[in-house]
Design a protein that fits this description.
The complex is a heterodimer of chains A (235) and B (229).
Chain A lengths: L7 H5 L7 E4 L9 H10 L4 E4 L10 H6 L3 E6 L8 H8 L4 E4 L2 H13 L3 E4 L13 E4 L2 E7 L3 E11 L15 H7 E11 L19 E4 L6 H6 L6
Helix pairs in contact in A: 5-6
Chain B lengths: L10 H10 L6 E4 L18 E4 L3 E5 L20 E8 L2 H9 L5 E4 L3 E3 L4 E2 L14 H7 L2 E6 L10 E2 L14 E4 L2 E6 L2 E7 L5 H6 L5 E9 L8
Parallel strand pairs in B: 1-2, 1-5, 5-8, 6-9, 8-10, 12-13
Antiparallel strand pairs in B: 2-3, 3-4, 6-7, 10-11, 11-12
The chains are: A alpha/beta (235), B alpha/beta (229).
């Protein structure tokens, strides 16, 4: 078994119009910039994107939105140092927004990966985000029912990867990447270094390969923060 | 109405006061922006461990300019550094720490706090783009929820109110407010005044507060280091 794919372009080639795509990262940390740019080049439209944020500057997720590819965004925090692209699309009515509290977003994704269709959380009880959702009382406290959040594809970024798709991450770039890997039908990882089988100590594997469909090596991946400081625009 | 511009505490002084109540060994989450400042004023001999939602526990100060590693950031997307003892974890684990009640204290900013402990801090409800982040999770689940805030808005309206008019972040969650004029607990009776700055009278403080201030035991002076003014 070898899940390795030569290029980012080949890795994202099958993503169709209308797909729901989870994109890992928290701000720029852990964002799979090269896979997102390959998806822009590939041309898929009418996407629903799940990400913690809504892009920053004119690269990565912001560029995908700027190119008009995203119909709906599910996120917790659509603000950034330079959120202009999302704000313009939102104000023009070109993109729908579903705001999800960050912990609920993470748990909805985790639940999907774990086969749990719904769960109860104290988060959001009595607020606008709980509107229309079932509420139940456990041990005297009220909880809101939230449902799993699945995706057709997940685009994630990891540090080391082996041909079976076992992954490690680098520092806080881990964030949403492991849970998203488990919640999508097809998970595509860009890894900064591809190592042979046995090249990752089993004790250090964070995402076991069962959650990963394909991986491609992108050495020295771009950091969104660096691109934005250089005022980069993609494409 | 009394002009408080000259007498109110600076943000650094409010953050300093909030930091004095963080116990040694506490696991603490600081909201993005102003609350992050609390970490600078850890009293000597009290070591808090800071949690950031994006998956880091026990992180250090900001790095020097030019030494940032953008894979190592806090929830405010600012660069941080490692401590001996730092750990990394994914988002679902991070919010298990939050929802599971493992954090001792969360300190957040506020648009409005009601005398019932309701907090509004995520959306003005006026057509701005809402952004909730991790606030709704934090306010329901940390053992102690404190707010640091100016006592009134830029236009002089009370931020401590009878009932929040803005969309809620959480219901009945805030237990202590560190404002630019006072330290106020939220108890069954409502706002209980614990400390106020010497330069404001009780009547003037009440006139700037949107619900009754109750007294319970001795009222202390809220005194902060002058060099932080």
């Amino acid at each position: 078994m070898d899940k390795t794919i030569q290029t980012a372009a080949e890795a994202v080639a099958q993503i169709p119009d209308g797909a729901t795509v989870m994109i890992g990262g928290f701000g720029g940390s852990g964002a799979p910039i090269e896979l997102i740019h390959a998806l822009i080049d590939q041309g898929a439209r009418h996407l629903t994107v799940v990400n913690n944020n809504a892009g920053n500057g004119h690269v990565g997720l912001a560029a995908l939105i700027e190119q008009g590819r995203v119909d709906k965004l599910i996120c917790s925090f659509p603000r950034s140092a330079d959120p202009g692209v999302f704000v313009a699309a939102y104000r023009a009515g070109k993109i729908k927004l579903e705001i999800v509290p960050q912990g609920t977003l993470a748990e909805r994704i985790r639940a999907a990966g774990a086969g749990i269709p719904a769960f109860y959380t104290p988060t959001g009880f009595g607020t606008d985000v709980a509107e229309g959702k079932p509420v139940a009382v456990f041990e005297g406290r009220s909880y809101v029912q939230e449902r799993w959040l699945k995706a057709d594809y997940a685009l994630i970024k990891a540090e080391l990867g082996d041909p079976h798709g076992n992954l490690t991450y680098r520092m806080a770039a881990r964030n949403f990447n492991p849970v998203m890997a488990s919640a999508a039908t097809t998970t595509i990882a860009q890894v900064s270094r591809l190592v042979p089988l046995g090249g990752i100590d089993p004790e250090h594997v964070v995402t076991p390969g069962i959650f990963v469909s394909a991986l491609t090596e992108i050495p020295n991946p771009a950091q969104e923060e660096d691109l934005n400081r250089a005022e980069a625009i993609y494409p | 109405m009394i002009d408080i511009t000259e007498i109110k505490l600076s943000n650094a002084q409010i953050a300093w006061r909030a930091a004095q109540d963080i116990e040694d060994g506490a696991y603490v989450n600081l909201g993005i922006g102003f609350p992050e400042m609390v970490a600078q004023f850890q009293p000597h001999g009290k070591q808090a461990i800071f949690h950031t939602e994006n998956g880091v526990l026990d992180f250090g100060k900001s790095p020097d300019k030019g030494h940032e590693d953008w894979d190592l950031i806090n929830a405010g997307k600012k660069a941080i550094t490692l401590n001996p003892g730092t750990s990394f974890f994914h988002h679902a684990d991070s919010f298990a720490m939050v929802r599971g009640g493992h954090l001792d204290v969360a300190i957040l900013g506020a648009y409005q706090v009601a005398q019932t402990g309701d907090l509004a801090n995520w959306s003005t409800g006026k057509g701005g783009i809402p952004a909730v982040g991790g606030a709704m999770d934090l306010v329901q689940s940390a053992k102690r929820i404190a707010v640091i805030t100016d006592h009134v808005t830029k236009t002089g309206a009370p931020k401590l109110v009878d009932t929040c008019t803005m969309p809620l972040t959480g219901v009945g969650c805030v237990t202590r407010i560190y404002s630019s004029l006072a330290v106020i607990d939220i108890e069954v009776a409502g706002f209980v005044l614990r400390e106020k700055i010497a330069a404001i009278s009780l009547d003037d403080l009440q006139s700037l507060t949107g619900a009754p201030l109750h007294l319970d035991g001795p009222l202390q002076e809220l005194a902060c280091p002058k060099e932080l003014a």
